[in-house]
Amino acid sequence: MSGLADRPDGALVGVALPHESAARHATGTAIYTDDLAAGRADVLTAWPVQSEHAHALVTLDVAPALDVPGVVRVLTASDVPGENDAGAKHDEPLFPSEAMFHGHALAWVLGETAEAARLGAAAVNVAYEPLPSIVTIGEAIEAGSFQGIAPTVQRGDAASALGSAPHVFEGVCEINGQEHFYLETHASLAHVDPEGQVFVESSTQHPSETQEIVAHVLGVPNHRVTVQSLRLGGGFGGKEMQPHGFAAIAALGATLTGRAVRLRLTRTQDLTMTGKRHPFHAAWRAGFDADGRILALEATLTSDGGWCLDLSEPVLGRALCHVDNAYWIPDIVVHGRIAKTHKTSQTAFRGFGGPQGMFVIEDILGRVAPLLGIDPAVLRERNLYRPGQTTPYGQEVRHAERLHDAWARVRTEGRLDERRTEVEAFNSAHPDVKRGLAITPVKFGISFTFTAYNQAGALVHVYRDGSVLVNHGGTELGQGLHTKMLQVAATALGVRMSAVRLAPTRTDKVPNTSATAASSGADLNGAAVKHACDQIRERLVPVAADLLGVAAEDVRFEGGKVSGPDPDGTSLGFDELVEAAYARRVQLFAAGFYRTEGLGWEPGTMQGTPFKYFAYGVAASEVEVDGFTGATRLRRVDIVHDVGDSLSPIIDLGQVEGGFLQGVGWLVLEELRWDETDGPGRGRLLTQSASTYKLPSLGELPDELNVHFLERATEDGAVYGSKAVGEPPLMLAFSVREAIREAVGAFGPRGHSVELGSPATPEAVFWAVEAARGAGDADRDASAERSDRRAETAAGAPDRLADAGLAAARRSPRAEH
Amino acid sequence: MDDSMVTVNGRSCTLRGVAPHTTALDWLRAQGLTGAKEGCAEGECGACSVLVAMPDGADGTAWTAVNSCLVPAAALDGQEVVTAEGLGAPQSMHPVQAALAAAGGSQCGYCTPGFACSMAAEFYRARRGEADGASEADGASEADGAGAFDVHALAGNLCRCTGYRPIRDAAVGLGTPDADDPLAARRSRPAPETVATRIEADGARFVRPRSLDEAFALIADEPDAAVVAGCTDWGVEVNLRGRRAPLTVAIDRLPELRGFAFGDAGIELGAGLTLAEAERLLEGRVPLLAELFPQFASPLIRNRATLGGNLGTASPIGDAAPALLALEARLVLGSIDGEREVDLAEYFTGYRTTVRGPGELIRSVRIPLPLAALSGFHKVAKRRFDDISSMAAAFALDVGADGVVAAARIGLGGVAATPIRARATEAALVGRRWDGEAVRDAASVLGSEGTPMSDHRASAEYRAIMLQQSLLRLFRAAAHEEVVPA
């Protein structure tokens, strides 16, 4: 074990503590970015002028806005002193002359009140010269509209393996996007202080990059701009790249007017302007042997990147690296490409392409199991990675046995075998309602695939009274990072939790930070905080040894006391030791730094070791499907998830449960719909408010939810033996989609392959039920009257599926020989 | 100069000069009470929830959770409001706040103050723990017993982080208020009187008249006035579509619109009763409405939205209309010139248009008795609770002792420009034996009623098939009840 993973006696990591801000949250006293502006009469409000075309050249006449009472200024391209760009890829004009999507912000109006700014924005005259637009992946593929890199992950010879495989299937799947719907919409508040520092409060997951973008828009060095992230009302990846432009608008407005400027998007603005989880299209061919072992996979994944690159390239890269999910696929070739469409620029979202990659293999296994005549649970278990095997990109699947351990535990503790018998009995007794029970695995790689991001910094101060102030580069989005960092610092210094305070994240405390993303926040910042604390402790040890009269190696720090080998012997308070160290001129603050070792990734060949380790999990879900409407209910969920040795069990449990339900929302409920007609609203987001875009509510919570952490799961490469937990649990939700598939299958004959729309909304499930019933009717060759009626209703279904780009999973002619 | 005041967390605050379009949420935040958050500005997410002291119908006060984003600040004149900050402070949390915090019920914390307020409303609900048919049927309430917490009270609050399990655990683990709990004690005294309000700002007026006649006079003078009750629809127009009115007239507390009578020949429900009040007053005596209420939006909306408002907006997807159509309800329309009664089936004339004249208001809804023996409300939506219907169907059938359908009334929503009666289907059922064959025949007729559209909620084909399914499901449920006595 490395020192990084060792836990001392009396460690405060691993203790179940509530979120450090829980009492403030509950009492409404936790402050978020826009709360700072509430009630301040001196603050101007910025309001966007949004494009009403999906693609058009635009000319602005802002004069009418300036006549609106209370309007102070209209920001346009000519106001930008630096670079007119809001993205890291230099392909995102902050003030565009060409509207690239419906809702694109073309200019921003500053008003004394939100009302004045809104009316001012409505008064701006926009002249449009419409251009042809592409609003679906299908249109982009047809038009050859792509952007960025087109990587391939390859191992072996998939083509020849498919040529000789006993069973070959092919198909297409369409994977829906997802809106982050953080409860707090994007917000920034900027002012220029008397010293000329541009200070921006921003709801951002990536303060350093927000700082860089603000600086390059203003044309000033980074040291002139300070970005603070107090806390976020949710991020989920949606505030990794997207906040930069909004912060830049507020900062530009503040610079030009000398007034503080706030910008907070309304929900509809946020929905229509900011990026989402990438929708994907996948076409695949898969070969299996007689026992259902996967022999080969050929697939092409096309993501819908929207109008500019943003993070589409790394999202696609991670998708390709997760098509295998937890399964050994000996011969494989997966191509990826990014469609360029006239839509919001899709971005990071919890899982970052991983969920879309895994969707493909889980969909394949779910569709082919009935055709192979193999129980889907058996099919999945049979294909799980074994110790010693490697991924398609060449990384060893370390701790693959944990997958099998988690699988066995879910099966036993969830009484899966018994319950499947119960489900079958229920289904044979109920013609109108069916249940399904499915189990699925997760293997998720931890580290930024962009290797440079795998570094972090911290700044820890110990004051003379023994109190400790911790700064680190990560942001608090609700994931409990600050709680974990407090526990890490208290553990490393051997002090009580009450001795440690965490300062809000600021770019002038810790510079050049990475985004709080890729589930890496605790791994990276925790190691940096520990490094800083360890340095201070090392400097305190000789002082303590001298004062206590013990050997340096025998000095113990625990619970705010410093003692020799006998904890009940002579001891000093940590505060006394610190005061003594100060008198001896010992440095009581330290900068901590960490970089993840052991990574080696070749983005060109898509080969190497991009991940420090894998996080594993297994979930079994039972659902009930109403055959009248297609509505589903989640009856019971059992999860075993690998969080290593948990740093903070309440926090980690919250991440597992919350991630899971967010995944359920993506797969069965949340539906982004765009106007794909040729009418005047083409390209407009139709689901642009909370009343049309539906998140899971309390009613979607399963009646029974059992979550356990995998035991004996120390990760020796991470801080105090823990593992990242933010993203992996989201993908446990595939168990729900697959359970729905099983329940739908129970409406039809054995061997019927169920295709499910994405998301599996009640309507999508209903059409799948109709298709299953139709297959049953065809099989039974029932009385003419009934089959006519059913055929009529079922006839709509295949057409609809074809419209949606879902081809039937079928045996290729080769498989018939 | 107006002297409008509101009591917030025990402190008296002036509402002088507040604009009619200013929401209670924005006003509270401008006072420095930033605990309530804007998550959606349309009453969908509950992040803005606060508590208002409302009459409990028995001379006491019910702490009622509402969406402050939909309440005009001016409507709070004379009222008492408690926000999350008023419930407790970090060092002295309220029991619901302490439970949420300890359970891990907050992650990002943005929705938490709103959850705390919705939880507190249920914590203080009188008669909590007594049998509650609707929620028991759904299996979502805890076992009977003192202090049982109905988690449906939280159905209008969204959380994107936690997955709700810790919130549910915190809620069902709550006890009852302490003896010296000041908000519990407040319940035994009457709610604040409704006061007449007249606030003017930026050339726009908000008026709460003293009487219905005064309201009639106001709208006769100014036909462009926005007449509001619960404001759950108008608030959305104001917040999301920038609607502004020179005159806003609030009629929700007028005693003339808040009557309730359950007679031998019929039931009279005042148009100004909120859905929550109507549910409480009816006590399950109209099974069709008892089935409707829990599916109507969310508790936060039902605490404000009125029956009259739901019919007044004439939305084709309002959920009250189909049920009331099946009940053969009639509306009493009043104006400065007197009253008239219209059949609800004759009331809707087109998309969001009705026979209601410029100066007319809905006074009450009349439901004739006796009720049909067999009834059912069937709603299809993407989400189980707090979602807008893709389609809704309400049934009221009389089946004679001979097994023949004597009368059938079916109301539909979401399949035409207005809520409609499914008259062809009714005709197809009447005179037939209530059996599988007749139901299948009638269902195929029902599938062709109306003119369903395809939109982001559902396709036209699905809506049409759901119409058929709703009757098949009613039949299946009725048959099931005969086999298994309740």
Automatic annotation (TrEMBL), chain A:
What are the Aldehyde oxidase/xanthine dehydrogenase a/b hammerhead domain coordinates in residue numbering? Answer: 27-132
**What ranges does the record list as Low complexity composition bias?**
793-810
Mind listing the GO molecular function terms for this protein? 2 iron, 2 sulfur cluster binding; iron ion binding; molybdenum ion binding; xanthine dehydrogenase activity
Q: Name one Pfam family in it.
A: MoCoBD_2
The record's keywords, sorted A to Z, are: 2Fe-2S, Iron, Iron-sulfur, Metal-binding, Oxidoreductase
The prosthetic group or cofactor this protein requires is: [2Fe-2S] cluster; FAD; Mo-molybdopterin cytosine dinucleotide; Mo-molybdopterin
Q: What class of enzyme is it?
A: oxidoreductase
Instruction: List the protein's name.
Output: Xanthine dehydrogenase large subunit
Q: What's the source species for this entry?
A: Agromyces flavus
From TrEMBL, chain B:
Domain named FAD-binding PCMH-type: which ranges?
199-372
Q: Which InterPro entries match?
A: 2Fe-2S-bd, 2Fe-2S-bd_dom_sf, 2Fe-2S_ferredoxin-like_sf, 2Fe-2S_ferredoxin-type, 2Fe2S_fd_BS, Beta-grasp_dom_sf, CO_DH_flav_C, CO_DH_flav_C_dom_sf
Record-annotated 2Fe-2S ferredoxin-type domain positions: 4-87
Write one Pfam family the protein is assigned to: Fer2_2
UniProt-recorded name of the protein: Xanthine dehydrogenase small subunit
Please give the superkingdom of this protein's source.
Answer: Bacteria
Lineage of the species this protein comes from: Bacteria, Bacillati, Actinomycetota, Actinomycetes, Micrococcales
EC annotation from Swiss-Prot or TrEMBL: 1.17.1.4
Give the keywords, sorted: FAD, Flavoprotein, Iron, Metal-binding, Oxidoreductase
- The question of whether Metal-binding is a record keyword is answered with yes
Q: What class of enzyme is it?
A: oxidoreductase
Q: Which organism is it from?
A: Agromyces flavus
Q: Which GO terms describe its molecular function?
A: 2 iron, 2 sulfur cluster binding; FAD binding; metal ion binding; xanthine dehydrogenase activity
